[in-house]
Write a structure and sequence with these properties.
7-stranded mixed β-sheet; 5 helices
């Protein structure tokens, strides 16, 4: 496998630069985790960082779009969003149960002062980045 190529739209950097100081580090940390996880996977060759609905988003050839954002109306939390029509969040809930706080079928919610369960979140990221290759597996390839 080749080295991961990350293609970043300039507008993404602008969104990260404009997050309030109170959340910028947490958002940057999630961004780094996505890139780091994609690099570790080996089967993701290109990771596109773009904006969808004004939110930083990650797109791969065989994945489901992964988005993240902080909202001013809920200033003490931020989230990682998944396609609600996929099995992703339902599967995360089944496997990880109370490790995360969920919002319906579309998001994992983090509190600003929360310690993130990194190993488990990386499994969620992997499942999303390769979703179309694992969607027929019961656990979406998590911990396999």
């Amino acid at each position: 496998m080749g080295k991961l190529i990350v293609r970043t739209d300039a507008s993404v950097d602008e969104v990260f630069a404009n997050y309030p100081d109170s959340v910028r580090d947490q958002m940057q940390y999630l961004r780094t985790l996505v890139k780091e996880t994609a690099e570790e996977m080996g089967d993701v060759l290109v990771l596109q960082e773009t904006l969808k609905w004004g939110e930083p988003s990650f797109v791969t050839k065989n994945g489901s779009t992964l988005r993240m954002d902080w909202k001013a109306k809920l200033p003490k939390q931020y989230a990682m969003y998944f396609q609600c029509s996929s099995r992703l969040v339902d599967t995360f809930r089944l496997i990880f149960d109370r490790k995360f706080q969920y919002e319906g079928k579309r998001a994992i919610i983090f509190q600003l002062n929360q310690t993130i369960p990194v190993m488990q979140l990386k499994e969620c990221i992997k499942a999303s980045l390769r979703y179309h290759n694992v969607k027929d597996q019961m656990t979406l390839g998590i911990f396999e």
